[in-house]
């Protein structure tokens, strides 16, 4: 099978990830839960994971790097920490349900800074127009998981700093691929999964948090045990319960791979593949491709639709023909409403560092046959 669903999970992992996870199972117990060698090894690996993340994302204080189960977990912590019932929150028109659902649960008044797909300036202007004195928080998706649209996070961060508005960045599709500079962003929270562009296993994630973070879970932390509440310091106050050490070890190895390759080289590889694929699909009669004509603000994610097939039917047929893609609404109905594809959804192809041009050509040839056959 040719795997083109890296925006969901990067299925192909560096060999070092599997080795690190296996080693953790053999040699580590739980960090902060004992002074013996097994616990000490776990403590060291957990700290190494934080150090790698701090270096990769320019986090000035390693203690600000909290380990989560996934980006959704981190975004829930961030929203719980900053948003109260009735608060006005400005978000992009490309947010995932991992932002929309927690905001709705918090009782937020949501304003959507919407704009045409791949129109970077329009997206920034929409935020500028909507942010006012009543805005209590801004949430922005660095890259749309549906269309690969890179949004103006650094410019929006400047607006937030100038107006004293807290900022949450969803780096689910950008961490490991684009520059995610915590120091330059100055965001209160940056959430990311471990299992996508960081090439770690599922069930891992990172949250770059500020001191105003509030616990989402309560329980053992391995520290400040006499306190009836959670510790009041990072990262302990956000990490209740036993750590997933095999996952953390795998994530650490995945980040080492990203550091060795560099996000810049990975991004260049993914962009080249998607530009090539978009060009090939655009030649096919009966296929509509959502791509950045200028090639400036699209990453390794590409959505398209057939005139003659629903997205779900197309996705199933592609699977039967040996291609793993994602079809439908991609847990991002807001993005589809923004672009006008909410009724039918799209077929999404997304790549990683392990995909090749030959795979893009094979995929385009298969899509052409499907469009021709109807």
Feature tags:
12 helices, alpha/beta, globular, 374 residues, seven-stranded mixed beta sheet
Walk me through what this model shows:
With about 375 residues, the chain is an alpha/beta fold. It has 2 domains: about 120 residues, Aspartate Aminotransferase, domain 1 (Alpha-Beta Complex); about 250 residues, Type I PLP-dependent aspartate aminotransferase-like (Major domain) (Aspartate Aminotransferase, domain 2). It is about 40% helix and about 15% strand. It is built from 12 helices and 13 strands. The protein has a 7-stranded mixed sheet with strand order 2-8-7-6-5-3-4, with helices on both faces. Strands 9-10-13-12 form a 4-stranded antiparallel sheet. The chain has a two-stranded parallel sheet with strand order 1-11. Helix 3 packs parallel to helix 4 and helix 9 packs parallel to helix 12. It is globular. The relative contact order is 0.17.
Note the run of SSEs as H and E. Answer: EHHEHEHEHEHEHEEHHEEHEEHEH
Q: Structural class from helices and strands?
A: alpha/beta
Oligomer: single chain
CATH superfamily (homologous) name of the largest domain: Type I PLP-dependent aspartate aminotransferase-like (Major domain)
The gyration radius over C-alpha positions equals: 21 Å
Main sheet strand line-up? 2-8-7-6-5-3-4
**Number of helical runs?**
12
Uncertain runs: none
Counted beta strands: 13
Strand proportion, as a percent range, falls in 15-25%
Largest sheet: 7 strands, mixed
Measured as a percent range, the helix fraction is 40-55%
Provide mean pLDDT, rounded: 97
Shape: globular
Look up the CATH topology of the largest domain: Aspartate Aminotransferase, domain 2
Distance between the amino and carboxyl termini = 23 Å
